[in-house]
């Protein structure tokens, strides 16, 4: 495992999981959200974003977290030798999104590139909560076929169904990498 893509619905814990995996393997962690979002939650222009992703995945070893199917999947998956799908239940993912959003609103904690949660955004059509609601079922339908295609090209795929299963998977890797 040298080039790993971690995918899953909002709230599945992609960033935290990918960070842990990168630390275990002693390789760089690339957060697609950090490459995509500018200040004030303004998305980078598509070609700027793709250029950033292209540069990041040009390295020999990395763990990338994020989906960005229309703007970056071809770049990331085209180089990935392993894809890890955090396929957690709807209850787990939506609960995490709600907790993270509320926590961010209350504490003002900075997210990627210094952005903070805003109540207006949390309640808008661009809400991460709404995005999680809309994308959960679609990902559960799309990913099995997409991952099967990646397996046919020789990539390894891993489907983890719960936070406990993902923790166990990481723990099994830890002794092997040290």
Present the secondary structure layout:
Layout: E1 3-8, H1 14-25, E2 29-31, H2 32-36, H3 46-57, E3 62-65, H4 73-79, E4 82-86, H5 90-107, H6 119-122, H7 128-152, E5 156-160, H8 163-177
Parallel strand pairs: 1-3, 1-4, 2-3, 4-5
Helix pairs in contact: 1-8, 5-7
Low-confidence stretches: none
| Total tally of structural domains | 1
Fraction of residues in H or I helices: 55-70%
What is the strand tally? 5
CATH superfamily placement: P-loop containing nucleotide triphosphate hydrolases
Q: Per CATH, which architecture?
A: 3-Layer(aba) Sandwich
The overall pLDDT average reads 93
Q: What best-fitting shape do the alpha-carbon axes yield? A: globular
Helices and strands, in N-to-C order? EHEHHEHEHHHEH
Number of helical regions: 8
Whole-Å distance between the termini?
Answer: 14 Å
- Strand proportion, as a percent range, falls in 5-15%
What is the SS-derived class? alpha/beta
CATH overall fold name: Rossmann fold
Widest sheet: strand order? Answer: 2-3-1-4-5
User: Tell me, what is the CATH class?
Assistant: Alpha Beta
Radius of gyration over C-alpha positions, nearest whole angstrom: 16 Å
Largest sheet: 5 strands, parallel
């Amino acid at each position: 495992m040298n080039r790993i893509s971690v995918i899953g619905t909002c709230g599945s814990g992609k960033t935290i999981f990918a960070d842990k995996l990168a630390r275990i393997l002693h390789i760089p962690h690339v957060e697609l959200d950090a490459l995509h979002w500018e200040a004030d939650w303004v998305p980078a222009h598509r070609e700027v974003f793709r250029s950033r992703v292209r540069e990041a995945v040009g390295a020999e070893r990395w763990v990338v977290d994020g989906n960005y199917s229309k703007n970056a999947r071809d770049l990331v998956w085209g180089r990935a030798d392993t894809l890890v799908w955090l396929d957690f239940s709807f209850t787990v993912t939506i609960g995490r999104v709600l907790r993270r959003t509320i926590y961010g609103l209350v504490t003002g904690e900075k997210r990627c590139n210094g952005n903070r949660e805003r109540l207006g955004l949390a309640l808008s059509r661009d809400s991460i909560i709404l995005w999680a609601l809309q994308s959960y079922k679609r990902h559960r339908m799309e990913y099995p076929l997409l991952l099967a295609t990646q397996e046919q090209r020789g990539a390894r795929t891993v489907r983890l169904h719960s936070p406990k299963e993902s923790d166990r998977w990481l723990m099994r890797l830890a002794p092997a990498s040290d």
